[in-house]
Structures are given as structure tokens and as C-alpha cells.
Amino acid sequence: MFSEYMYGEKNMSEHDITLTVNNTEHKLVIESRRLLIHTLRDELGYTGPNVGCESSLCGACTVHLNGSAVKSCTILAVQANNADITTVEGLAQHGTLHPIQSSFQEEHGLQCGYCTPGMMMTALDFLKHHPNPSRDEIREGLEGNLCRCTGYHNIVNAVESTAKKLAEISPGGAA
Ligand code: FES
Ligand code: FES
Q1: What is the mean pLDDT of each run of 10 residues along the chain (175 residues)?
Q2: What is the pTM of this model?
Q3: 13/51 Cα distance (integer angstroms)
Q4: Which numbered atom of ligand 1 lies nearest the CA of 54?
Q5: Ordered structural domains, the chain, with CATH
Q6: Residue 146 Cβ < 6 Å to ligand 2
């Protein structure tokens, strides 16, 4: 798929970039100061990643950039030129929830849900490197993501459950 978005006349502070988001390529003309989170949400309509602190503290904006979890409020869109990005919208396939989504649902790992997209993207990257984590390791792996609602207990349950599901799907736990 291909989509194109441009706003205004290009000037010296603007750049042509290409972002592939959830397997869809987007070509944009973007200001050099524009953050990736705002580009994803406002220019491209991927509103799954949320804006919380805009200062790398809360993790609500976390997406995968070339396969690794990053806080998209800490990256300029121009720095992500030619990158493959996955947002929470890219997890479900053909209407079927990703195991981490079904686990958060089953374990009641959310209340308001504001932190949830970022939690899930961080947890998946964590599980790639820790396919069979202890509860303490899960808590440590998620320490860069803040939740003001749940007390984290059910989030840890959800990540534990996801690890088990992924191990059944693919021994070794690839997310
Ligand atoms: S909005 Fe990016 S870390 Fe809080
Ligand atoms: S569920 Fe509300 S901030 Fe985490």
C-alpha cells in the first residue's frame, strides 16, 4: 500500500522522508523539528501510541522502530527516515488479537488504557530478549512505562501469560 501526505510548501526546514508503518509506506514532507509521535498521530492517523509526558518518562508513546521499542517522543521524524515502524495498530492480524492483546484483556491488565499501547510494545521487545522472565524481571523490563491506574500487578500477569503463549506458538518466544 502507498499513501502520500504533504502540508504547505516545502521550505529549507522541511525534508522528504519515507516511513513504513505497519507495512504501509508513507511519503511525507516534514519539518525538521517534528517529533515522530506527532507525525504518527497527526499526519498519518496512527493514534494508538499516546502522548503523555513528551519527555521520555512515561512510555505511552512507545512504538517499534526497526524492531526495537523506542519512545517516539524522543525521536525526530526525520531521524526515522526509511525506518520500519510498528505501532499497536499493527499487532492484530486479520481481526485476530496478538497474544499480548488477548493476555491484557484476559488478565485485566488495563483500566483507563492510556498506558496500554506503550506497555504492550515495550513488553513485546522485552519478551524477545527474555522469553521466560521472572515477575521481577518483567517489572524491571517495564520500568520505563508508567501506569497510574492498575498498580502493575495485572500488567505483570498479562506479560507472564503472553510469554507462555508465545512459547507455545514459537519455542524460544519470538514476539
Ligand atoms: S510521551 Fe513519550 S515517554 Fe511520555
Ligand atoms: S491503565 Fe490507566 S494509565 Fe495504565
Answers
A1: 50 91 98 97 98 97 98 98 98 97 98 98 98 98 97 98 95 53
A2: 0.92
A3: 24
A4: 1
A5: 2-89 (3.10.20.30), 99-169 (1.10.150.120)
A6: no
